[in-house]
Amino acid sequence: MIASAPAPDDEPAIAPDVEAALRAHLVALATERRYAANTVEAYGRDIRQFLAFLAEHLGEPPDAAAIAALPARDLRAFLAARRRTGAVDATLSRKLAAVRGFARRLARETGIEMSGVAAVRGPKRRRDLPRPIPPAAAVAMTDPDLRADEDRPDWVLIRDAAVLALLYGAGLRISEALGILRRDAPLVEGASLRVVGKGGRTRTAPVIGPVATAVRAYVAACPHPLPEDEPLFRGHKGGPLSPRIVQDAVARLRGGLGLPDSATPHALRHSFATHLLARGGDLRAIQELLGHASLSTTQIYTRVDAASLLAAVEAAHPRARRS
What we know:
The chain has helices spanning 16-31, 37-58, 64-68, 72-84, 89-110, 115-118, 135-141, 154-170, 174-178, 209-221, 243-257, 265-278, 283-290, 295-298, 300-316; strands at residues 192-196, 202-206. By secondary structure, it is mostly helical.
């Protein structure tokens, strides 16, 4: 094994060759694979957790060759340990994918076959159906007047409403909305908004009237400079707006509208797709609007709509009523 320099108390020691390989691997994920910054950060955290587990398990930080040749039982033991800390299946699947990808890189560099890692199967993930917000409530969430009683500047309420209008009116992810630059601000109805989504995939989102109106209102009300090549949405002090602020705004709206905890910013994107489908929207077109790489990802919304129809039948049909 390769000795490593002492590490801070809150961070496990990592062998120098592994540290160098990890940094190069994360750079490759961001530049070559074009993973989102949050995904790269999560993968790096997962891999470091695994390296800490191995260091404790083996008694010293493992070098690259040891990781590439590690037996399947060690990876299974790591996943079992994380499950005991409360990690759910989706999180375990991500951790397994992160470690596998890193081990593949090390295997290419060392020439050692990684049959042990390849033999580990991840937990079967149960894909929960999205829970859309009712149309009336989704529209209400984009109205700044709904929060008029809050002790916040008017421009902040208008800003939050504009962001939520983009999520519900254009089907954007929160990161996509907050990534819009001032020069690309959708100010005119019928314009096309260029969106860079997951994996660096680019799509075009049409701008409907209420979205353009909401964004224009924000641009007019914002007291901070809005340079053309910087993010459109600004925080209270003028810096880029944090997703957490939008999440907190939606949490307050949930209380006012009596919505469940599942009513999140991302649920507005789900609502965009579900409501389009319910009104006869074409599934392929919805796929393009959402930026899904695969139609199978979009098809989950057909299950959502079928579920709502079944619920309506069970609630209203005489033969479906239960005593």
